[in-house]
Amino acid sequence: MTITAERPEMPAESPRKGRKNNPEKTREDILKAAIAEFVQQGLSGARVDSIAERMQTSKRMIYYYFGSKEQLYVEVLEKLYGDIRSTEGKLHLAELEPREAIRRLVEFTFDHHEKHVDFVRIVSIENIHHGEYVKQSAAIRSMSNTILDALGDILRRGEAEGVFRSGVNPLDVHLLISSFCFYRVSNRSTFGEIFQIDLADEQVKQRHKVMICESVLRYLQA
User: Fold this and answer.
1) Which is nearest to 48 in space by CA: 65, 187, 167?
2) How many Å apart are CA 142 and CA 65, to the nearest integer?
3) Which helix (H) or strand (E) holds 151?
4) pTM of the model
5) HEC letters along 48-83
6) What tens digit of pLDDT does each residue of 190-213 get?
7) In terms of Cα–Cα distance, which of 221, 40, 211, 193 is closest to 110?
8) Do 53 and 33 contact (CB within 8 A), yes or no?
9) Tens digit of pLDDT for each residue in 97-146?
10) Maximum Cα–Cα distance for the chain, whole Å?
């Protein structure tokens, strides 16, 4: 993975003694601080100094683990995509009747986007950059194929059982589900103001969750 990055001329510093015994936790803490900084400032406006301040550590510590701000941003993307893909893998979709599997997946996606606004914001930021950094991560492409494989299995089983129509593309279904769940979070402020609706209201959320579940199922059913 090749990344061009600006980096101050300073020698790398090994982790401070208090953190050295748990490098994985240190990396995780840096990623959490970086997510907060990138969400608030975007990639261009984010500063390694500010991330270090959030952790009460030195920026040399951050460079020791991640090399550059851009590399840190790529690993933030990998963490956030990895979190949703990892949780999807625990839904046991293959054990469910096809229609129930679709319903569980749609409801999970809806709830995940609702609860993880940082994921939505970081993905929105990455789209401003035309996916430049996603392109640099083979890990994101690889882990994202797992949801297409799971959807493909559900659709094949549903077709074989006569409950889903044939010829449906798993990627199209994934896009259908993701687009609604993502948009209602990413555009909450503008949509809510223009149309005077509180998309965070519990009744509105439940109505929308039912709507997207029924929309996807009616599209799929034979």
Assistant:
1) 65
2) 23
3) helix 138-160
4) 0.85
5) HHHHHHHHCCCHHHHHHHHCCHHHHHHHHHHHHHHH
6) 999 999 999 999 999 999 999 999
7) 211
8) no
9) 999 999 999 999 999 999 999 999 999 999 999 999 999 999 999 999 99
10) 64
